[in-house]
Amino acid sequence: MQSPLLQEFHADRMRNWELRDIFNHIVEFSGDQHGSRLIQHKLESASSEEKQKVYDEIVPHNVLQLTQDVFGNYVIQKLFEHGTQVHKTGLAAELEGHYFALSKQMYGCRVVQKAIEYILPEQQASIVRELEPHVMECIQDGNGNHVIQKIIERVSPERLGFVQTFRGNVQILATHTSGCRVLLRAFEYLPEPFTAPLIEELHVNTHMLIQNQYGNYVMQFVIEHGKPQDSSAVILQLRGHLLAMARHKYASNVCEKALKFADADTRRQLIDEILTPRPEGAVVLSMMKDQFANYVLQRAVVLAEADQREALINQIRPQLAILRRISTGYSKHLVSSEL
Question: Where are the Pumilio-type repeats located (predicted)?
Fold first, then answer.
């Protein structure tokens, strides 16, 4: 049942409501869609006294409830964002012992992420310690993986001993819908002593990962952002297989990335593969007619040096008339190009 005050608020939302108007009803309003929005908005410019009053009504008895509530979680997030350091510390303390469960809960995981952003390093470490025994479970959870990503982004690397558990599991992570995101975040934020063994493990399965629905994103990252030797090791796996990889739904993305970030000599060798006829026919024509390879061919034309570009265009141009007659959605870019 709604209190008379909440009913009045719903009936007269045009009134300029202030936090002081709803004191002693903060928890009820936090769990209401429009009441929650009011509190969130007012907390951004509230006085210290007003923030303290909101905090006192929520802590300690209502923190866990509101953290998991569809509307209340936003109020807790705002307190982490705009409360005093004492408020942030107190909220985090109330959630201790519940971080694992909250990380897997739809609304709770958002509060945990916000807490990680705003609490002191000692309390960040407390969250890490609580999640450490469950880190692989969190990574493979639709909500929990976002918490692990936030920890990798925000917590000092020396506190992230759980990254050692990634070793031996890199292939599992790289081919998992959320595991690949966590792995990419690790590569992006952690120093080389953490990431080098993980990337080394990737090289064992490069050929498979290039063709994987999720692994291809990891391979693209290594090509673009990895050390030159790691990038080259991935690109090397495409040599001799460029046509097959270019025609593959996922590997074609890696081919495009390889053409863009390879050194000049390697790029030239890859494009030579496209230009060299095979017994079964011209590679260029095969790529032109393929829904994925045609994009790799377009990228090759753009990035090729002058002599190779001319050779590509000389092979493409005679086929354009045929493509115009059988034009499909994926070949329209080549058909409409001014080659």
Answer: 21-56, 57-93, 94-129, 130-167, 201-236, 237-272, 273-314
Q: In sequence order, what are the residues at sequence separation of 6 or more whose Cβ sits closer than 8 angstroms to the Cβ of residue 300?
A: 259, 270, 271, 274, 312
Query: Span 291-304, mean pLDDT?
Result: 96
Q: Give whole-number Cα distances, 294 to 298, 300, 328, 338, in Å.
A: 6, 10, 11, 15
pLDDT in tens, 23-43: 999 999 999 999 999 999 999
CA atoms within 13 A on the CB side of 57: 22
What pLDDT score was predicted for residue 188? 97
The number of beta carbons lying within 10 Å of the beta carbon of residue 86 is: 10
Tell me the CB-side half-sphere exposure of residue 185, using CA atoms within 13 A: 21
CB of 39 closer than 8 Å to CB of 75: yes
- pLDDT of residue 163 exceeding 90: yes
Task: Say if residues 322 and 299 touch (Cβ distance below 8 Å).
Answer: no
Structure tokens at 157: 């690397």
pLDDT tens, residue by residue, 233-279: 999 999 999 999 999 999 999 999 999 999 999 999 999 999 998 87
The pLDDT value given to residue 4:
97
- Residue 333 makes CB contacts below 8 A (sequence gap 6+) with 294, 295, 298
Q: Is the confidence at residue 68, as pLDDT, over 70? A: yes
Is residue 329 over pLDDT 60? no
